[in-house]
Design brief:
325 residues, alpha/beta, six-stranded parallel beta sheet, three-stranded antiparallel beta sheet
Length: 325
């Protein structure tokens, strides 16, 4: 897929994570991505040593242009003439003040695909408000689904809304580019990060409307013995997702506990749950790590981010990618 978008030119006028991630995905598909940064650079260059910038801008050509100057605007317009799409993440109205909004640029490039990616969209009473990932998670209802045993929302250490927003933006850009190449027509895309995050809660809406649950699918909501997170002997964690009978049976067979076969749907906090938890605590994390690769019972270790690079799944994937180069 490295050359799927060969010959396609994308202008990236974005900062931090959502926009850069979206355009980086297109670059990985072969598009030429020109990232336009101010003379001082994307602010992400100065966040935590610039690592956020490095992580989300691979495969791009970076140019520095002062869009507030007449010379810079002219330089930008020349880039637009040869571009297929543009993605921007400024607050609503900023690109219009610069004379670089969609209505202005389509006069320069009639078939331009233009994507505005923002927190709350381009219209409405919240459109002009500042916001970050934690706000989108909260407002969408997603953060309420990540709670500790006391019911307190857990603070994520990853920007989930930023990445899902960037993912959807790249998807929408691809669809609009397909239309452009089929019909010769450009398009304007208005994507709000909080709305994207909310789209992942469709199951929750249905279960709530039916009066069944406020936390989505009950079977996977952390309420049953066979689908839960368990602590190991050394204070690490394993996930057990034995939702189907065959996987729960495989786990019980491994544990040599035939009497557990009827326990799969028992609630957390029950006597049965305590027994299964004790079994997980009888082995350390490395032991369970090895078991997860041998026993077909939907077992997986909770890995730290850097540990995934050593897991057989990712090692194999990296090896396969290198063999294609």
């Amino acid at each position: 897929m490295k050359e799927a978008l060969k010959g396609v030119c994308i202008l990236d006028v974005t900062y931090y994570v959502p926009g850069p991630y979206a355009s980086m995905r297109l670059a990985e598909l072969g598009a030429e991505v020109i990232k336009v940064e101010p003379p001082t650079g994307d602010p992400a260059r100065y966040m935590s040593g610039g690592h956020v910038h490095r992580a989300n801008n691979r495969g791009k050509t970076i140019v520095h242009i002062d869009l507030k100057s007449a010379e810079g605007r002219l330089e930008m317009l020349n880039l637009v003439k040869n571009a297929d799409a543009l993605i921007e993440t400024f607050r609503p109205g900023v690109m219009k003040k610069l004379g670089l909004d969609y209505d202005s640029l389509k006069l320069v490039k009639a078939d331009l695909v233009y994507c505005s990616l923002s927190g709350y969209g381009q219209t409405g009473e919240m459109a002009g408000l500042g916001s970050h990932d934690l706000n989108y998670m909260a407002l969408s209802g997603a953060l309420d689904q990540l709670k500790d045993a006391s019911g307190k929302p857990i603070h994520p250490t990853n920007t989930l809304a930023d990445f899902t927003g960037g993912l959807l933006a790249s998807e929408q850009l691809l669809a609009a580019l397909l239309k452009k190449f089929r019909t010769g027509q450009g398009q304007y895309l208005d994507i709000a990060l909080v709305e994207v995050m909310a789209e992942f809660l469709g199951n929750h809406d249905v279960y709530h409307e039916e009066g069944i649950s406020d936390n989505g699918i009950p079977e996977i909501g952390g309420t049953r013995v066979s689908y839960s997170i368990y602590e190991t002997k050394d204070g690490r964690y394993m996930t057990l997702g034995a939702l189907e009978d065959k996987f729960w049976r495989a786990f019980c067979d491994f544990a040599q506990r035939p009497e557990w076969l009827e326990w799969g749907e028992r609630p957390l906090g029950s006597h049965e749950h305590q027994k299964v938890a004790e079994f997980f605590k009888s082995k350390n994390w490395r032991e369970w790590y090895r078991i997860s690769l041998q026993v077909d019972a939907c077992l997986a270790p909770v890995l730290k981010a850097h540990e995934r690079h050593e897991h057989p799944f990712f090692v194999e994937k990296i090896r396969a990618k290198r063999s294609l180069v």
